[in-house]
Write a structure and sequence with these properties.
Structural class: alpha/beta
Order of helices and strands: EEEHEHEHEHEHEHEHHEHHH
CATH topology: TIM Barrel
Number of domains: 1
Bound molecules: NADP nicotinamide-adenine-dinucleotide phosphate
Strand order of the largest sheet: 3-4-5-6-7-8-9-10
CATH architecture: Alpha-Beta Barrel
């Protein structure tokens, strides 16, 4: 598994990390036993980077990771958590007092005195340009509650704003073969500034596995029911913001670009990892088997001109007009 330095954290992380929203079981049915099996399979396959949030399962995802870290203290795992979505999304809630309370809760959940990396969890846009907010985050570092901070963003302009701030260690943003906008400005700016890029939703919510058909149904509590018709651009961030049927057609074309000997999932992850400026992808594996398959992408060099050009072509025909101006 290839390792890269995660921006200003200076920490070495695997290019394939693990997203753990699904382990919170806010949607879908993941038992604690299954969740631990996903963590174990990931680590056994070379993953040493987990992404979580205080809101996933209202702390369940963090707590499961915390117990895993306690049982496996010497694995050198970096955990990125997030804060700020357990309150109303008002600029005034992003205060030092709240940051202290939120990080104290995550420190308990994760069983860590000092958190490796805390990301603002897609707060209101004005928060990214607030000097007081960055001062408060610097205070958390000086108090020893956190080692580093970063941001998770919905919009590319939010990423560019955060990258300008001197101590932003990392930016988490949607980037996959069907969401190319970060390639325009965000990746070059992050690289120039030494800011890490954590590419989330790298499989376009599973579309880029190539396994769905237009008839695929998701369980009733699955968040992917919310944007099936494409009307909820960023709700659950599903399917790259287009309707499911369009996404399935695009995914079938993507599958046709995949080199022999590699799965569609692995080609999709390897494509993201190959983009200049990306540090790591954080696919959401729902089983140990998925975790192992995803981790294998961290050692693949499969992105030739055919795949690279094909991704651009699919994006231009199915996605650019519908989503490029929207974020
Ligand atoms: N605002 C934010 O900061 C934010 C928002 C969203 C996500 N995130 C982070 O990003 C992570 C990933 O997002 P995501 O889970 O929504 O999207 P994703 O990683 O693009 O897609 C995950 C889905 O892909 C399928 N999948 C994964 N590995 C597979 C494999 N090896 N083979 C076949 N299918 C596979 C699974 O679908 P099935 O369930 O159909 O098997 C899984 O539910 C989250 O866990 C979270 O850490 C952050």
């Amino acid at each position: 598994m290839e390792q890269r330095i995660l921006g200003k954290t200076g920490r070495s992380v695997s290019t394939v990390g693990l997203g753990t929203w699904q382990l919170g079981a806010d949607w879908g049915d993941v038992t604690e036993e299954d969740a631990v099996a996903v963590l174990e399979a990931s680590v056994d396959a070379g993953v040493n980077f987990f992404d979580t949030a205080d809101v996933y399962g209202d702390g369940r995802s963090e707590q499961i990771i915390g117990r895993f870290l306690r049982a496996n203290p010497d694995l050198g795992i970096t955990v990125a958590t997030k804060m700020g979505r357990r309150v109303d999304q008002l600029h005034g809630n992003y205060t030092l007092d709240n940051f202290r309370a939120w990080t104290d809760r995550s420190r308990r959940n994760l069983q860590q005195d000092t958190l490796d990396l805390v990301q603002l969890h897609c707060p209101p846009t004005s928060v990214y340009s607030s000097a007081e907010v960055y001062d408060a985050l610097d205070t958390l570092v000086s108090e020893g509650a956190i080692r580093n901070y970063g941001v998770s963003v919905e919009r590319t302009d939010e990423a560019l704003e955060a990258i300008k701030r001197g101590n932003t260690a990392s930016v988490q943003i949607i980037l996959n073969a069907f969401r190319l906008k970060p390639l325009d400005e965000v990746l070059p700016a992050a690289k120039e500034a030494g800011v890490g890029i954590i590419a989330r939703v790298p499989l376009a919510s599973g579309l880029l596995s190539g396994k769905y058909t237009a008839a695929t149904e998701f369980p009733a509590d699955d968040h992917r029911n919310y944007n099936r018709d494409g009307s909820s651009f960023d709700v659950g961030e599903t399917f790259s913001g287009v309707d499911f049927a369009t996404g399935v057609k695009a995914a079938q074309e993507f599958s046709g670009l995949v080199p022999d000997g590699v799965t569609t999932v692995q080609a999709a992850l390897a494509w993201v990892i190959a983009q200049d400026g990306v540090t790591a992808v954080i696919p959401g594996a729902r089983s140990a088997e998925q975790a192992r398959a995803n981790a294998e992408a961290g050692g693949l060099q499969v992105v030739g001109a055919g795949l690279a050009d094909g991704v651009r072509d699919i994006y231009d025909r199915y996605f650019r007009e519908a989503i490029h101006p929207r974020w």
